[in-house]
Protein 1
Amino acid sequence: MAKVSYAVETRLAPQVVWEALTEFGPRRADLWPDLSASSFRVLERGGSWARVREGTASLGIWSVERYEWEYPVITATVEEASAAQPGGTWRMEVSPGPTGGSVLTVKMDRKAKGFAGPCSRSPTGVFWRREHGACSRTSVGRPRRRPESLVVLLAMLAVIAFPFVVFPHPRTNDASWLADAQWPLVLVEIAGAVVVYAVFRGERGAVIRMGLGVLLVGSALTLVVSLLVFGNLSNDRFAPLVFFPPVLAITGIAGIVVAVAAGVRHRRELILGAYIGLVLALGFAAWTLTRGARAWLQAPYGFDVLLLLLVLGVGVVVLGTSPNVWALAAPLGRLIAGPRRTGDRRRSK
């Protein structure tokens, strides 16, 4: 029987590490890069326990584990595995670090099985090293870097630069077809939002639905404010500021209602989604009001404003599926972590 103990230090707060250890939703494979999303499946789950099948597909390693936890300790027991005998355990305890951050103490009591046994990984993606072994430990909860966020950022910059690069000196009725393309673009946005509401479920669904709903409602309010500030009802160029806000608002409110109704157990995710949507909506408002009447009276006739809204909507989806998304919620960290602050409640007694 192999008995190994070690400690891993990280700059992450204990509560962040604890939430990563007890995360058994779609984000688990993102939080622990050594887990394969294709191999992960929740078999059973209770309030403080879960049975899951997980593994590393590239190594052909898999296991059925029963997790039981009570802050600050979580224990995983092998029920069936390709590289370990049944009955083996991992015990992981989170504690504050001496100079900040946290320390994850791991105690393993398992017997390897088969060729892959000596390099068998823990369920959390922390590798252990046997004497003279070749396995190395990775940092706790290291998120995968995803290019999608960079692509969305570049798309936003491209949309912002679009009117200045393509129409540096717009003349009357230049590219007037762009004004006619506004409605199809808005219909694409509405249809896309409905599809997103239907496709994404669980924790990610709560973040994305709420974020997209808040963004659409905020954008509708921005267009109304724009109409009041610089609009002119006698000019057809400002018609989008009249007709688009109700459509966007209704779609946004529908998303918020669906998010709340389907995510009553995901309060943290709903708050995070609202935070993301609010930040992006404020960015949309700043750009729209800065562009002013010129955005609608001259080419591209507000097309760039609506195109930016589409890109921001895609940004909500990307952020809602990104392992780095929690860093965006730093100002709301305590509020978001509230429902699972088990350790804090115990210490206060």
Protein 2
Amino acid sequence: MARHAEIAGGGMAGLSMGLMLVRSGWSVRLHERSTAIRESGAGIYMRRNSLKILQEFQLLEDLRPRGSRIERTFVFDAAGRVHQQRETPGELDLWVFPRQALIESIERKAREAGVDVRLESTAVAADPAGALILDDGARLEADGLITIVPHKGPIVTKVTVRQAESIYQVRGVLEGLAVRLFTVRASEAQLERLERAADTLERVYKKFEANAFLKAKSDFYGVLLEGADNEVATSMLRNIHIRVSLLRATSLSNPGRAKDSMKEIRQLLTAIRARDEEGAWKACMKHIENATKAALAVLREEQVSSD
């Protein structure tokens, strides 16, 4: 099932994020309150890393005729004398493009990729459940919610303690159901895949890296939901897991949590392997309860520090 994102803001950051999400398999709708996509300012200088990104997204060739490659840079002193000069011989060293040309190219590539760009569509609010609210009162549900902050770019809304409590409460109900269903419905092949996913997760725990961890966790739950074979629960739980992913790194910043988490998952697998529905549910609840305590402890500490 493809994930869906609603993006508020049709600037460079919003369009670029939409393009990246579509290329990752998401469906994306972008809302821009103006009648056209516009950019203020004149030229924008772009160096190696930025140019490599333009190249990766096949934008650089489109922009070359409208830009200029800077072959040499100069530094002048107060008297107008050349104080320093440097050649930039590399093709991807330094370019300058008109800002409007850049945003037009990104917009064109985003539309071609499948981003649904809605002009004269004004977003006025967002709620923690993952919906964008428009000025006409429409409430647009999304799996991912990205808000573009002027001069800062895309951000993920910070989860409050109260929101985290609500997220984990709903997670407990839905995940507990999924575990019960998997225990009684999953095939032997699905159970073996779940065990392999847990093995991968354990390797990532030992050599922790955030992106690898989130992918391994997502893969684990993907197998679990497939074996549970409940389309409604799967849809709802995927939405919850997206929000939980914002909190997982928080809970794992608690010393010792990673080791305890893996131990809890192994206990869950033991119960599932025995086809012990009640035991699997209890192991699942224990895992979620401990993850909740760890995440909330860190969030409360951050809240106190910010106050």
Protein 3
Amino acid sequence: MRYIVLTDGVERETYKGGKPYRIEGKDNIKKEIYKNGPVVFSYTLYDDMAFYEKGLITKASGNKIGTHKAVEYGWESEGWLAQSTIGEYWGESGNFKVSYDNDFGFGENVFAKSLYKEYSILLLILFITLIL
């Protein structure tokens, strides 16, 4: 799979992705985010989460309506920092905070995927020519 980083609509860098791998444990998740950047996770979604506006989510209530996926990009002393795929009009401009001690599986099903830059053969030949 190929990932393209766009800046102002112009392709800047191209990455290829390796196989996804699972990360277990709070400390290992933190290490992964620190070393390689954001990770993807899934959690149980309850209907009361639709009304989240700000603050730390510690407990979910209401009816279970399925699972949801989001991007975990950091942490604070009390919990994880994440970005939802719902959009910028939900939560704190699309972001939310979840307690480490939550009751809906947040931080348990975490996956990452290694990315590496993809260089064209022309750039590779040019690079080798310059160093020889």
Protein 4
Amino acid sequence: MAKTKEYRNGRNELHREDGPAVIEYDAEGKLKRETYYSNGSIHSEDGPALIDYYENNGVKREAYYIGGELHAEVGPAIIEFDRDGCPESGRWFRHGKEFIPSPDQVDAYMILRDDMGMTVGTMVCPTIPAEQHEDTRMSPEWFCT
């Protein structure tokens, strides 16, 4: 049987300041998803607010939210990873609105992880020149260099 652990504030809203407010496990007890909330809204200012995991505990998907809206200042707000941990696709959002960035808006960046595999930040690299872009959507060849 799957299990979910929830943390709530005094107003019974999903909320936790020092970790995810919702932690979901599959029927075998393996971590399936972590979701960060602040006063009832999916929210994290210092990392992804939603993290889905593969059965092997590798990160499958990260989604960045601020105040309940998909939002990332740098890079995509939703990142899908392959089983080897390499980002394979992403979708860009600002203030809940999806957009496809133009080549001059796309910055290459490296996802920084700690020893446990948790995202601890990103490092922005120089903008990729437009002539090196085949498409305005992220591709594995571009993202996994």
